[in-house]
Amino acid sequence: MSSRPQTAVAANAKISPVFATRLASKDVNEYINTANKLKNWLGSEKAYYPDALRNIVLLFEIAHQTFTTRFLHIELSAALIRAVIPFLPLFTEEDLQYTCCPTPRLDPKFLSGFG
Predict the structure, then answer these.
(1) Full pLDDT tens readout for the chain, 115 residues
(2) Rg value, the chain, Cα
(3) In this structure, are residues 14 and 49 in contact, taking their beta carbons and an 8 Å threshold?
(4) What φ, ψ does residue 101 adopt, rounded to 5°?
(5) Which pLDDT belongs to residue 97?
(6) Angle at CA of residue 84, ends 102 and 94, nearest 5°
(7) Rounded distance, CA 93 to CA 96, Å?
(8) CA dihedral angle for residue 41, residue 72, residue 61, residue 8, rounded to 10 degrees
(9) Do 66 and 23 meet the contact criterion of CB atoms below 8 Å apart?
């Protein structure tokens, strides 16, 4: 192995934890920027050397977990709740109202943060 590939492997080993941290970020812009950088990096066959494969899978898992638990879940849940609130009177059974919009989720602070 020449020194250039060894240098790339060492650089990738250093950047992988940085990507992991940024992909776990609560900041959607940081997440998107990092995911785009990862996408670009993974667009090259050179990224898929044997020692990198576990890190690639780990980064995928972190990205997926962050997306589904922080961004998709929260923003989509808030949007769904806001869509249903005007129609709550149509749900005459109390248990149905609670299932659609549990009381804690109706907190204006929760709903206003996702407008």
Answers:
(1) 455 567 878 888 899 999 999 999 999 899 999 999 999 988 888 888 888 888 888 998 999 888 888 877 666 666 767 776 777 777 677 777 666 665 444 444 444 544 4
(2) 21
(3) no
(4) -145, 80
(5) 66
(6) 45
(7) 5
(8) 20
(9) yes
Contact call for residues 59 and 38 (beta carbons, < 8 A): yes
**Rounded Cα gap, residues 69 and 88, in angstroms:** 26
Contact 22, 34 (CB under 8 A): yes
Give the span between the Cα atoms of 15 and 63, in whole angstroms: 15
Both structure tokens of 115? 């407008």
Q: What is the pLDDT, as a whole number, of residue 115?
A: 44
| Token code pair at residue 86 | 């005007």
| Cα gap 59→21, rounded to integer Å | 9
